[in-house]
Design brief:
The complex is a heterodimer. Chain A is mainly α. Chain A contains nine helices and two strands. In chain A, a hairpin with a 2-residue loop joins strand 1 and strand 2 (about 110-115). Chain B has one domain: MetI-like fold (Orthogonal Bundle), CATH 1.10.3720. Chain B has helices spanning about 15-20, 25-60, 65-75, 80-105, 130-165, 170-175, 180-210, 225-230, 245-275, 280-290, and strands spanning about 110-115, 115. Chain B has ten helices and two strands. The chains are: A mainly alpha, B mainly alpha.
Chain lengths: ~270, ~290
């Protein structure tokens, strides 16, 4: 079987297109690279969507945490503590159990029946947990950045007569983003790494359609050889990390474009400043 | 546990609960919290040691040692830690068995035969006739080693950065006094680097706490394992039938971890205060001003 044939058969295996059964006997390098690569689609799906949704929630949370009103601040504090203080692994378990407990038939809401079965599937349930998790971590980063917006910037905005939303949108928020961006890059990278946990926690892989680590684990189990499958995952993730740094670097340059010479290269410090 | 627990089906309310929560399996569930704490207590010092070695190696003047240190330090960058947790135990296990098979078995038989990893009975680790606890201990040993290797790499990142942050002038002064390279490292560099290392190490400790549920994936009977076992719905054939209670068990685990992080945060804040005292850093300066 040629490598092109393998890619055609298994390239989209993880999303249910191509061969129904996983290969049994013949695990050559091409098969392993293809299968694990197809699993990366799930990692990309989870990572990208949760970064996008999490970003907006995190902004709201950061502002709520910085608010003077205790009715806003306390819940935000609690939410951030809950999700930053507990392991993501446990959050997946809890999330899954919660979704399973929802009535199978759906919930009656204002006369409309809302279906809940899809929440127990990984594509939705795990995504929700990941979004909430990254929202909490990013909110902490954004809150820290918001606290370190220079006083002079705000006084200058006041002097120009900017108030309310305009002041926030034109002065506070861009500076907050600029200060938070290097840490936020790290958080995004870590989030993509955390997506490998999805199919190892409670969320079942439907019809063996799992992520890259799921397939790597499958292959390592079948071949009794961890020295091929896991390095392939590692290589894929190094590529992913490098491309994330490149993409976030472009945004970083844009955020710092008014400050000549201030653009610092984003250094990825793994997980240490979460 | 209690005398009235002899016939659990006849019990009700609090009595039933008190019996239910003190069954043998529940006691093992409580003991598994100890397993987690033990893992933390064993792993943290070993990881710190590995990290120390890695950081010193990456500063070494001998090129191969430095390369080794750099590779070890950057090993965890860009790759999810869970990949290492899956990889390291199997890899180490196969390495040990391979080495033993070269000594105890016929060395001409290859260990990899197709999709199988075969060693003779004498090289198996642990031996097939060993007691069950030996397998448990061996599994735990591999798990601890995997944790220590991965977190050692993180720690060496932190410690390397901390060593680089010690003001250059301090080291040069020590050299001017005629200290050798080793003396400079031991008497000046290492005592001064801790204050720079503490924020990173605190963070690392938090991450280590939050990584402990992964023990479950390594096959250790930890809290996650028992929560799933005990929480799953029990039919009438069990002494204590109940529906699916896994949610409540996981809530207990959640509370445990939240408590752990909250306590750690308090303690680490104190440690960092203590270390900043009298240091030429911003925090140290603030404390000096507050005192006068």
């Amino acid at each position: 079987m040629s490598c092109v044939q393998t890619i055609a058969d298994y390239g989209l295996r993880s999303i249910g297109i191509g061969e129904r059964l996983l290969p049994r006997g013949d695990f050559d390098l091409c098969t392993q690279v293809t299968l694990i690569g197809s699993g990366m689609l799930w990692n990309l799906y989870f990572g990208t969507l949760s970064v996008i949704f999490g970003f907006f929630i995190a902004n709201g949370l950061a502002l709520a945490k910085a608010s003077e009103n205790p009715w806003l601040r306390k819940p935000a504090d609690g939410f951030i503590f809950l999700f930053r203080g507990s392991p993501l692994f446990i959050q997946f378990f809890l999330g899954y159990q919660l979704f399973v407990l929802l009535p199978r038939a759906g919930i009656e809401l204002f006369g409309i029946t809302v279906a809940t079965g899809w929440l127990t599937k990984a594509w939705a349930g795990a995504l929700i947990v990941l979004i909430l998790n990254t929202a909490a971590y990013s909110a902490q980063i954004f809150h820290g950045a918001l606290q370190s917006v220079p006083k002079g910037d705000i006084e200058a905005a006041d002097a120009y007569g900017l108030t309310g939303w305009k002041k926030f949108r034109r002065v506070v928020w861009p500076t907050m983003m600029r200060l938070a961006w290097p840490s936020y890059t790290n958080e995004a990278i870590f989030l993509f790494h955390a997506t490998t946990l999805v199919f190892f926690s409670s969320f079942p892989a439907f019809a063996q359609q799992g992520d890259s680590l799921y397939y790597a684990n499958y292959l390592a189990d079948k071949t009794f050889n961890p020295f091929v499958a896991y390095p392939i995952v590692a290589a894929y993730f190094i590529l992913l990390t490098l491309s994330l740094i490149a993409i976030f670097g472009i945004v970083n340059r844009r955020l710092n474009r008014h400050l000549p010479g201030a653009t610092q290269k984003i250094r990825y410090r793994p997980k240490l400043i979460r | 546990m209690f005398e009235y627990c002899a016939d659990p089906k006849s019990l009700e309310g609090l009595q039933w609960l008190s019996c239910y929560l003190t069954t043998g399996t529940h006691l093992r569930f409580y003991a598994s919290f100890g397993t987690v704490l033990m893992l933390l207590a064993i792993t943290a010092p070993i990881a710190l040691l590995f990290g120390f070695g890695g950081a010193l190696a990456s500063r070494s003047l001998i090129a191969p040692v430095r390369w080794f240190g750099k590779i070890y330090t950057s090993m965890v960058r860009g790759v999810p830690d869970i990949v290492f947790f899956m990889f390291v135990p199997i890899a180490l296990d196969q390495l040990f068995e391979y080495l033993r098979s070269r000594v105890y078995c016929d060395a001409s038989v290859p260990v990899r035969q197709g999709n199988d990893f075969v060693v003779c009975a004498a090289a198996k680790l642990p031996r097939a006739d060993a007691a069950a606890w030996v397998f448990d201990v061996y599994g735990m040993f591999l798990a601890v080693l995997a944790f220590a290797l991965v977190f050692g790499a993180f720690a060496s990142n932190v410690l390397y950065g901390a060593m680089q942050s010690v003001p250059r002038a301090q080291l040069e002064t020590a050299e001017a006094y005629g200290m050798t390279q080793r003396q400079v490292t031991r008497r000046v560099l290492i005592p001064q680097m801790w204050v720079y290392a503490v924020p990173g190490l605190s963070n690392l400790w938090m991450i280590l706490i939050k990584a402990t549920p992964l023990l479950f994936l390594l096959g250790v009977e930890d809290i996650v394992y028992w929560a799933r076992e005990l929480g799953g719905s029990k039919t009438q054939s069990y002494a204590y039938p109940h529906p699916d209670w896994r949610l409540y068990y996981f809530l207990v685990i959640l509370a445990f971890y939240l408590l752990m992080t909250a306590v750690s945060e308090r303690v680490l804040a104190r440690v960092s205060r203590r270390l900043s005292l009298g240091q030429a850093t911003m925090a140290g300066e603030a404390m000096r001003k507050a005192a006068t």
